[in-house]
């Protein structure tokens, strides 16, 4: 970070300290084109390699091997990004994929959307959402506190890094195709921020967007 020379307007603002949070960065509506911006604003990112797939192809010059990598990054508290990348070597491709995942980071909504719960804490999706990529379709349904993540391992890794603790999931299609499954889950999470929510609905369901843990810490200090 010390040797980072920003190339974009948003990057320069972050470097100068004019923007100190992801909420401020998103409010500018400037595109995030440098992974260093995410490193500066979300320093405690958690990441995971979801899949590494080797593809071999015969050509006139011989056998060519390429790797397809799928990764996820998130702060475990309202921000998550998923990406895929292709390359000739595993290590550089993973690093490239991680950087792309940072650039794909989105802010999601969480809440207490289950009629069986009513605790008011943002522990699950605020309402039912759907996502689809290729043949894979997934429906995410709010679950009461304590249920956990009733979904596949790939979805669990993504949801955990998004900060979702409880959820029921229904999926169909070729879910063993990890890349499509991961992107379908990511697509569904993005839907949480697209739906319009009235102020009274947000209060009733405890809906928040983005970081929640810092708000709890601030309220505790004020109390």
List keywords for this structure.
Ribosomal Protein S5, domain 2; 2 domains; 223 residues; four-stranded mixed beta sheet; 34% helix; 10 strands; alpha+beta; four-stranded antiparallel beta sheet; Double Stranded RNA Binding Domain; disordered C terminus; single chain
How would you characterize this protein structure?
By secondary structure, the chain is α+β, with helices and mostly antiparallel strands. The chain has two domains: 9-106, Double Stranded RNA Binding Domain (2-Layer Sandwich); 109-209, Ribosomal Protein S5, domain 2. 34% of the residues lie in helices and 27% in strands. The chain has eight helices and ten strands. It has helices spanning 9-16, 22-27, 35-41, 90-103, 153-162, 178-191, 199-205, 213-222, and strands spanning 46-59, 62-74, 79-87, 106-107, 109-110, 129-133, 136-141, 149-150, 167-172, 208-209. The strands form three sheets. A four-stranded antiparallel sheet has the order 1-2-3-4, sandwiched between helices. It has a four-stranded mixed sheet with strand order 6-7-9-8. Strands 5-10 form a two-stranded antiparallel sheet. A hairpin with a 2-residue loop joins strand 1 (46-59) and strand 2 (62-74). Helix 1 (9-16) runs parallel beside helix 3 and helix 5 packs parallel to helix 6. The protein starts with 8 loop residues before the first helix and ends with a helix. Mean pLDDT is 88; it is low at 216-223.
């Amino acid at each position: 970070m010390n040797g980072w020379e920003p190339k974009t307007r948003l990057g320069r603002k972050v470097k100068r300290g004019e923007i100190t949070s992801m909420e401020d960065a998103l409010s500018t509506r400037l595109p995030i084109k440098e992974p260093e911006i995410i490193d500066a604003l979300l320093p405690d990112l958690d990441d995971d390699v979801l899949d590494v797939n080797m593809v071999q192809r015969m050509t006139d010059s011989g056998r060519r091997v390429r790797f397809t990598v799928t990764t996820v990054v998130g702060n475990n508290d309202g921000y998550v990004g998923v990406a895929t990348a292709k390359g000739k070597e595993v290590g550089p491709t993973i690093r490239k994929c991680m950087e792309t995942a940072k650039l794909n980071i989105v802010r999601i909504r969480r809440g207490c959307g289950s009629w069986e719960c009513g605790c008011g804490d943002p522990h699950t999706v605020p309402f039912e959402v759907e996502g689809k990529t290729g043949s894979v379709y997934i429906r995410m349904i709010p679950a009461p506190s304590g249920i956990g993540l009733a979904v596949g391992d790939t979805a669990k890794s993504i949801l955990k890094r998004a900060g979702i603790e409880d959820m029921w999931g229904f999926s169909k299609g070729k879910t063993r195709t990890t890349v499509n499954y991961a992107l379908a889950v990511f697509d569904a999470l993005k839907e949480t921020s697209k739906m319009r929510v009235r102020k009274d609905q947000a209060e009733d369901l405890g809906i928040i967007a983005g970081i929640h843990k810092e708000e709890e810490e601030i309220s505790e200090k004020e109390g």
